[in-house]
Amino acid sequence: MNIQIFGKVKCFDTKKAERYFKERGVKFQSIDILQKGLSKGELNSVIMAVGVDLLVSQKCEEYHLFKYLTDEGKLEKLLECPKLFNTPIVRNGKSATVGYCPDVWKKWD
């Protein structure tokens, strides 16, 4: 498994996801999404796995503008404004989840 956890430092669910993998002895790479963001390839991979709607936080102040963008505009906005992401985003190759999803992660073993 090649687990990547994209999260926010102060996000409770991100901390829970990291603890989930630590407790099971699964190595993972933790990435601060606000600092590093996602590459275009990573973003496309996650969108293919979960879709855009799950990926975007409606609580974010920029969401009111985001929802009116075209599909291409949405991708660009997500790349430039990582605050819009729901976290954690957990990737395992081409598989991905958004939020705390231990039931899905169990199947990755």
Report on this model:
The chain is an alpha+beta fold and 109 residues long. It has seven helices and four strands. It has helices at residues 12-23, 33-36, 40-50, 52-55, 63-66, 71-80, 102-106; strands at 3-7, 28-32, 89-92, 95-98. The longest helix has 12 residues, at 12-23.
Residue ranges: pLDDT <50 for 5 or more in a row?
none
Give the end-to-end Cα distance, rounded to a whole number of Å: 7 Å
How do the strands of the widest beta sheet line up side by side?
A: 2-1-3-4
Structural class, by secondary structure, is alpha+beta
Relative helix content = 40-55%
What is the string of helix and strand elements?
EHEHHHHHEEH
User: How many individual β-strands?
Assistant: 4
Helical segment tally? 7
Radius of gyration: 13 Å
Overall outline? globular
Nearest-integer average pLDDT: 92
Report the biggest beta sheet as strand number plus sense, adding barrel if it closes: 4 strands, mixed
Instruction: Name the beta content range.
Output: 15-25%
